[in-house]
């Protein structure tokens, strides 16, 4: 299993993403965490993520989970064409709901655990890999899920890592008071957690887990 989970894009560890993937090639960009945003803003987020991936030598293209609602087999076929998936930030609850609607919450773990796919995600794209989204509601509004996705918010993550993740720690994008409240939520629930500055990343390569 190969995971690259960060607070903001590559952090200071683009080299480790490249090492994890091997030779840069096609990458599926999933931007569904931004589905509750205005269309123009969402389109801008896709463009802003594609450019740095291209600079690293990748060939990125968007894979929109809304095109695969209720068709997990079609999603599996589409993802099988890519060695890497890149999942950007936004609203973690919206992303989790779109994973559920498309079957990505089943397909992605299967492909990642089999070694067929490397998963890279930042902010919401990292948080959705944890066991629970408890505490994330301090930053991302679960109420955006119903009007955006037509289903109730899900509070379970995919559980490919066994820690909660708190991104944007000690960062201009973060809120120190809310971050401290999130930590209190994790500790009350007896959840292990990682804090990540915008320079840091979690790298999982087989049995090896590193917080960089």
TrEMBL record:
Swiss-Prot/TrEMBL keywords: Hydrolase, Protease, Serine protease
GO molecular function: serine-type peptidase activity
Pfam family membership, one: Peptidase_S51
Claim: Zinc-finger is one of the keywords in the record: no
GO biological process: proteolysis
Coiled coil: none
Family: Belongs to the peptidase S51 family.
Name of the protein: Peptidase
Organism expressing this protein natively: Antrihabitans stalactiti
């Amino acid at each position: 299993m190969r995971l690259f989970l960060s607070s903001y894009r590559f952090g200071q560890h683009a080299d480790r993403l490249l090492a994890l993937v091997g030779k840069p090639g096609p990458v599926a960009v999933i931007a569904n965490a931004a589905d509750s945003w205005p269309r123009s803003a969402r389109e801008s987020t896709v463009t802003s993520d594609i450019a740095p991936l291209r600079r690293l030598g990748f060939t990125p293209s968007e894979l929109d989970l809304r095109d695969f609602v209720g068709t997990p087999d079609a999603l599996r076929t589409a993802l099988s064409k890519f060695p890497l998936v890149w999942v950007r930030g936004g609203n973690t609850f919206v992303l989790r709901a779109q994973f559920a609607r498309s079957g990505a919450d089943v397909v992605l773990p299967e492909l990642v655990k089999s070694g067929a796919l490397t998963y890279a995600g930042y902010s919401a794209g990292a948080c959705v890999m944890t066991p629970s989204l408890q505490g994330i509601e301090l930053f991302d509004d679960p109420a955006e899920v119903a009007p955006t996705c037509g289903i109730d918010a899900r509070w379970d993550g995919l559980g490919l890592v066994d820690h909660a993740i708190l991104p944007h720690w000690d960062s201009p994008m973060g809120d120190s008071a809310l971050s401290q409240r999130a930590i209190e939520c994790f500790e009350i629930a007896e959840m292990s957690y990682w804090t990540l500055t915008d320079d840091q990343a979690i790298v999982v390569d087989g049995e090896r887990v590193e917080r960089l």
